[in-house]
Design goal:
Blueprint: H1 2-39, H2 43-107, E1 111-116, E2 121-124, H3 126-132, H4 136-139, H5 144-147, H6 150-166, E3 170-177, E4 183-194, E5 200-209, H7 211-232, H8 242-255, E6 261-269, H9 271-278, H10 280-297, E7 303-308, E8 311-316, H11 322-335, E9 340-342, E10 345-347, E11 350-358, H12 365-381, E12 387-389, H13 392-414, E13 418-425, E14 432-443, E15 446-448, H14 450-459, H15 463-483, E16 490-495, H16 497-500, H17 505-516, E17 523-528, H18 529-534, H19 536-548, E18 552-558, H20 565-568, E19 575-578, H21 580-583, H22 590-605, E20 609-613, H23 618-627, E21 631-633, E22 641-642, H24 643-652
Parallel strand pairs: 11-12, 14-16, 16-17, 17-18, 18-19, 19-20, 20-21
Antiparallel strand pairs: 1-2, 1-5, 3-4, 4-5, 6-8, 6-11, 7-8, 9-10, 13-14, 13-22, 14-15
Helix pairs in contact: 1-2, 9-10, 12-13, 15-17
C-alpha cells in the first residue's frame, strides 16, 4: 500500500515539473524573440542574439536540470543509505536474535529439539546431547529411529503421531532408555510448529530430566513409610504398637459395627523380676520369644500388639464365642508350661489375660481396652497364670484400685503413713525382747488395711518408695529410743522382695543409716521365704553383705514356701519366724504341731532363734513355750500400737 502511494506521488511531481518546463520554454521563446525584434532589425545580429539566447536557455535549463538531478539523486542516495543502514540493523538484530536463541537453547539444562515433518532433527541442543550421549552434529538430519534405542524411538514416534493426528499439545512423564545405556525419567513437553495460516511445518520437544527429583520423591516416600512404620510398630518385636492398636480399634468400632471381635489384654507375670535378675537384654529376648509364640498360636490375620513393657494385646476377629476363646487361651497357658531357653538358661514365665468383647462389653474403643485391662487385673488377683472375662463389676473395682493407688502415692509423698509396733515377748520371762514395725495408713474414713494397699503398691511400682519410708521411720525410732534408753531388743522391719533385689538397696541402707544416726545392730531385717527361693544365689550373696554391715536377718512366714534345706544352711539367717497359718488351732491340729516342732528344732540345729506370730490364746502360748520357741508375737500379749503408745508401754515395763 505504501509503495502505491509513493508511486502516485512521484508521478504527480514529475508531471508538474514537465508542465512547468513546457510553459517556461514557450514563454521564453516567445518573449525572447519579441525582445530581439525590438532591439534590432539586422538579420546577422538577430542570428547572434538568438544564438546567445539559446546558450542562455541551455545554461539555465542545464542549471535547473542540475539542481533537479542533484536533489533527486541526493534523495535516492539518502534512501539507499537508509536502506543499507536498515538492512545492516536488521542483519545485526537477526544475528543478535539468532545468537540469543542459540544461547537460550544451548544453555538450557533441558533437552530442546525441533524436527521437520519428515521427522528429521533440525535443532538438537546441548542439553539433548548431554542427556542422550549423542553429539549434536550426529543427530541433525537424522530421525529418532536412527539415534535412540528401539523402545525409546517407539515412544517418541508414538507421541509425534498423536500430536499430528490430534493437532494437540502433550505434557507428561516418560521413562526413557538413552543411547548411553542410562535410563532417565523425563517430563516431556511437545507441540506443533505452525505458520500464520496454521499450517504445520515442524514438531518441537522439551525434555526435562526429573530423575533426581523422582529419586528424592521416592526417598521421601520411603522415609515417610519408614517413620510411619516406626510410629506404628514396636522396634523390639516388630509387632504393631499401642498407636496402631488405638487407630485400629477406632476404625473397627466406628465403621465396622457388624464385625464383632474379642480383645485380649495380656500381662506377663513376674517379668520385672526377670529383668532385675538377668538384665534387660535377657528380658528383651523373653519378649521376642513370647511375641513369636503368640504369632505361632494365633491365626495369621490376628492383630497382635505390644503396647509397652510386658503388655500385649490380641485382637481376634474369627469366631468369638467364649468356648472358642477358652480353647485358644488354654493352648497359650499350656504352651507357657515349657520354659524359654536363653543362653542355656531356662526361664518359666506365665501370663494373666483379660478379655473384653465387642460390641457386647462396649462399642467404644477406649472403654473396650479399659475393660480388657480390668479383666486382666482380675486374672492376676485370681492367682495369675489364668484368664478372666470382663463383667460389669470390674470397672468399679479397677476404679477403686486406681483411686487407692493415687491416694497411696500422695500419702507417701506427704508422709501420711505411720509405723505401728508390736512387741515380741520371751514366753518364759515375759520380758520384751524386740518389736516388729508394721506399716499403717490412717485416713479420715479409717485405717486402710495393709492387705489392701501393699499388693497395690507392688502392682503400681510404689513398693520401693514405701519400703524406703518404712526403713527411714524405723531407723529414726530406733535411734530415738536408744537415746532415751527405751529400746528393748531390736526393731524388726519387713523388706519386700522387689526392694531387696533393687540395685540401689545397699546404697539406700548406708544413706539411711548415715541420715538417721542408726546403728545396724539395733535393726532386724525381715525377708520373706519366697523372695529367697526366687533368686537363691543372688539373695545369699546379698544377705551376706547386709549381715556384714551389722544387721540381724530373719525369715518371715517361714514354712509357707517350699524351702530347700541346701539353700537354708548357707543363708546368714539369725531367726526363723513361724507363719501364723501354723499357729491357728495348733492345740487341735496334730500336723501343725509337728510342723512347728520341726521348725523350732531345725532352727536350733542351725544356730537360729525362732519367733511365733499370731499367738492369741493362752493354750497356744503354753504349747509354744513348751516346744522351746524363743519369743512370741501376737494379740495374746499386745496388739500393734502407735509409737506414742509403745513409748508409754516401754516406760511401764
Amino acid at each position: 500500500m505504501d509503495k502505491k502511494i509513493r508511486t502516485s506521488k512521484s508521478f504527480k511531481s514529475a508531471f508538474q515539473i514537465s508542465v512547468a518546463y513546457l510553459l517556461f520554454g514557450m514563454f521564453w521563446i516567445y518573449f525572447s524573440d519579441m525582445c530581439i525584434g525590438f532591439l534590432t532589425k539586422d538579420s546577422d545580429k538577430i542570428l547572434i542574439l538568438q544564438t546567445y539566447k539559446g546558450f542562455f536557455f541551455i545554461g539555465v535549463t542545464a542549471f535547473l536540470l542540475y539542481l533537479l538531478s542533484y536533489r533527486t539523486l541526493q534523495e535516492r542516495h539518502s534512501e539507499y543509505l537508509k536502506y543499507v543502514n536498515d538492512q545492516q540493523i536488521v542483519q545485526i538484530q537477526l544475528s543478535q536474535q539468532n545468537s540469543l536463541l542459540n544461547s537460550l537453547i544451548n544453555s538450557s539444562p533441558d533437552a530442546i529439539v525441533i524436527k521437520g515433518l519428515d521427522r528429521r532433527y533440525i535443532i538438537f541442543n546441548k542439553g539433548a546431547s548431554e542427556f542422550s550421549g549423542v553429539e549434536t552434529y550426529d543427530a541433525l538430519g537424522k530421525t529418532a529411529d536412527e539415534i535412540f534405542p528401539p523402545q525409546t524411538a517407539h515412544i517418541i514416534n508414538t507421541i509425534d503421531n498423536a500430536l499430528i493426528e490430534n493437532n494437540s499439545f502433550i505434557a507428561h512423564e516418560e521413562i526413557m532408555l538413552m543411547p548411553n545405556g542410562k535410563t532417565y525419567v523425563y517430563w516431556v513437553t511437545k507441540g506443533l510448529l505452525m505458520t500464520e495460516d496454521n499450517s504445520i511445518f515442524g514438531i518441537y520437544g522439551i525434555y526435562r530430566n526429573i530423575t533426581s527429583m523422582k529419586d528424592h520423591e521416592q526417598l521421601i516416600v520411603d522415609e515417610k513409610e519408614r517413620y510411619d512404620y516406626m510410629a506404628h510398630h514396636d522396634p523390639l518385636t516388630g509387632l504393631p504398637n499401642r498407636l496402631s492398636l488405638i487407630e485400629t480399634l477406632r476404625i473397627k468400632t466406628e465403621h465396622m459395627e457388624d464385625h464383632p471381635f474379642a480383645l485380649f489384654f495380656i500381662d506377663l507375670d513376674g517379668f520385672k523380676e526377670i529383668n532385675d535378675s538377668y538384665g534387660h537384654r535377657f528380658g528383651d529376648q523373653i519378649l521376642v520369644l513370647f511375641a513369636k509364640l503368640l504369632q505361632d498360636l494365633f491365626p495369621k490375620n490376628t492383630l497382635i500388639i505390644r503396647t509397652g513393657g510386658d503388655e500385649f494385646v490380641i485382637l481376634l476377629e474369627s469366631k468369638i464365642d467364649q468356648h472358642s476363646i477358652q480353647i485358644r487361651l488354654n493352648r497359650l497357658i499350656q504352651a507357657l508350661n515349657d520354659p524359654f531357653n536363653i543362653d542355656q538358661i531356662e526361664v518359666y514365665i506365665t501370663a494373666s489375660i483379660g478379655i473384653s468383647l465387642y460390641p457386647v462389653d462396649s462399642s467404644n474403643a477406649e472403654e473396650l481396652l479399659q475393660k480388657a485391662d480390668a479383666a486382666m487385673y482380675k486374672a492376676k488377683n485370681q492367682g495369675r497364670n489364668t484368664y478372666s472375662f470382663y463383667n460389669d463389676g470390674l470397672t468399679q473395682e479397677v476404679l477403686e484400685r486406681t483411686t487407692l493407688a493415687s491416694n497411696l502415692k500422695k500419702a507417701i509423698s506427704n508422709r501420711d503413713l505411720s509405723l505401728y509396733y508390736q512387741p515380741q515377748i520371751n514366753p518364759i520371762s515375759g520380758m520384751m525382747v524386740g518389736a516388729e514395725a508394721l506399716l499403717r495408713w490412717p485416713t479420715p474414713e479409717g485405717m486402710v488395711p495393709p492387705s489392701l494397699f501393699i499388693p497395690i503398691a507392688e502392682e503400681r511400682g510404689l513398693i520401693i518408695e514405701l519400703g524406703a519410708f518404712v526403713l527411714e521411720e524405723g531407723f529414726k525410732m530406733a535411734t530415738e529410743w536408744v537415746q532415751n534408753g527405751m529400746l528393748k531388743g531390736r526393731i524388726a522391719i519387713n523388706v519386700s522382695a522387689k526392694q531387696l533385689i533393687h540395685q540401689n538397696f545397699l546404697l539406700q541402707l548406708d544413706e539411711l543409716l548415715h541420715k538417721t544416726g542408726c546403728n545396724p545392730a539395733w535393726i532386724e531385717l525381715e525377708i520373706t521365704e519366697s523372695s529367697i527361693l526366687e533368686y537363691p544365689e543372688k539373695i545369699i550373696a546379698l544377705l551376706g553383705v547386709i549381715k556384714s554391715k551389722g544387721f540381724k536377718i530373719s525369715i518371715d512366714d517361714f514354712g509357707t514356701g517350699y524351702s530347700s534345706l541346701s539353700y537354708l544352711k548357707h543363708l546368714p539367717i539369725d531367726k526363723l519366724k513361724i507363719d501364723i497359718s501354723f499357729i491357728r488351732d495348733i492345740t487341735m491340729e496334730p500336723k501343725n504341731q509337728t510342723i512347728v516342732k520341726t521348725i523350732i528344732a531345725l532352727a536350733k540345729g542351725l544356730g537360729m532363734t525362732t519367733v511365733a506370730e499370731g499367738v492369741e490364746s493362752v493354750e497356744e502360748m503354753v504349747f509354744l513355750r513348751e516346744c522351746g520357741v524363743d519369743c512370741i508375737q501376737g494379740f495374746y500379749y499386745y496388739k500393734p500400737m502407735s509409737n506414742e503408745s509403745f513409748g508409754h508401754l516401754i516406760r511401764e515395763i
